[in-house]
Every structure is written in C-alpha cells, then in structure tokens.
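Lecture 7 notes: from sequence to structure.
We start with the chain below.
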Amino acid sequence: MAKFYGTYPSTLDSKGRFLLPVGIKKQLPESENSFMLSSGFDECINLYTMEQWNNKIDELSQLDDNEPKVRDYRRKLMGSSSLAELDSAGRLLISSLLRDYGKLSKDIIIMSAFDKFEIMDVAKYNKLFEGLSSDEFSKLAAEANSFKKKKD
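Predicted structure tokens for the same chain:
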C-alpha cells in the first residue's frame, strides 16, 4: 500500500485544472497518469491513484448494503467521483461539482493523507495551522491516537 508524504501548493486555472506537482509525481510509478477525484471529509477533495481507488472500492464492497448509512455513504462518495487524466501539460481537471464542494478558489494545497492526497483551498489550509502551538499539537496527537482502527 502506498504511503504518500508532503504538502504541495498549486493553482487552479480558469477551467479548474492544476499542474500535478513534481513532488507528487516522484512518489508515483512513472506510468501513472489516471487518477480518481472524489469528495472527502471536511470539504476536502480526495485524489486517489487508481490502485488506491480500487482498494477503496474493495473496502466499500465489504460493507452491508442493507444499512441505509452504507448506501448513503456510497452514493455520496461514488456519485461525486470523477476520473482525471493528466493532459499533455501534466494538469488534472477538477470537476465544477467538486470545486464547489471544496469551495476552491485559485490557490490550492495538495497534502498527503496516508494513502491518498487531499486537495483544499489555501485559506482553509492556513486556518488549520493558525495559532497551533506545539502544546496544542501534542494534545491533538494524543487524542487522535486514542482512535485506533479495529482489527477484523
């Protein structure tokens, strides 16, 4: 399973395209040119490699379709998803639906989120770190560590 790292600024053009940063390209197989974009949590847009997207689909297929919350989650995730392929200039297009969902302006940040990247507006990103002291960061880490995934 791929584990990505880093935070990369980029800019949306008038059509909603952005140049995939070199730092991200270096973490991908050379032949990777297709990606899946979908709505994520907290008004972020998820950027998956096709391998990671297929893993996500496998996870979703294990959920019980008889549960209304499962159906709702699948609809929202799958309904917002769109295939994005690198164009000849190395850009990806974010659909207007996803740009609206993420409230994206011209300046964006693409940051690693373990097995995918999250795309958010730069103002939202800056707000995440505004006034975050080292003590507050330590407390956040301690709280986050209390939410371990359950093993099957």
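Points to note: The first strand starts at residue 7 and ends at 11. Strands lie at 7-11, 17-19, 34-39, 45-49, 82-85, 91-93, 107-112, 117-121.
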